[in-house]
Design goal:
- The protein is an alpha/beta fold.
- The protein has two domains: 41 residues, no CATH class; 71 residues, Type II secretion system, protein E, N-terminal domain (GMP Synthetase, Chain A, domain 3, 2-Layer Sandwich), CATH 3.30.300.160.
- The chain contains nine helices and four strands; from the N terminus they run H-H-H-H-E-H-H-E-E-H-E-H-H.
- It has a four-stranded mixed beta sheet with strand order 1-4-3-2.
- Helix 7 links the parallel strand 3 and strand 4.
Length: 155
Amino acid sequence: MPADWLQKLIKQGLISTEQLAEAEDMASNMGISTGDALVKLGYVSGIVVAKAQAEAYGYDFITLDGREISPAVIELVPESVARENMVIPLSLEDESLLVAVSDPMAVEVLDKLRFILNRDIKVVIAPVDAIQTSINRHYGQSETESVDSMLQEFT
């Protein structure tokens, strides 16, 4: 169940039920995930959230700090797709692309990647701030137009 990882944070003494309630309220008001709200409120770090989600959903957790990614792998995912969906390609294993995401429930993002790239996608979990830093390091600091706006131009 999706909320199990949040209850586990309470059982581990990392957050209180009151802090969880506050984060859930903030998340619904701001349209963000409860995990992101917990981080914004300063109750836990992005690493704690990412590790808890990875464990709960059966994915591996990865640290992106200092990880160099081959330019050939980076080129597989357009910058606009990486930024809009907060994903970073890590490596090519056989014909599968290993990508880091921050939200294990972002099934639509993974489906979009499978469709765009026409290949199997394997997932690891990383903190959203680490993914953002890695995107900036490997693609550059500038924002590009979103995939949706690019698709609108074609239709």
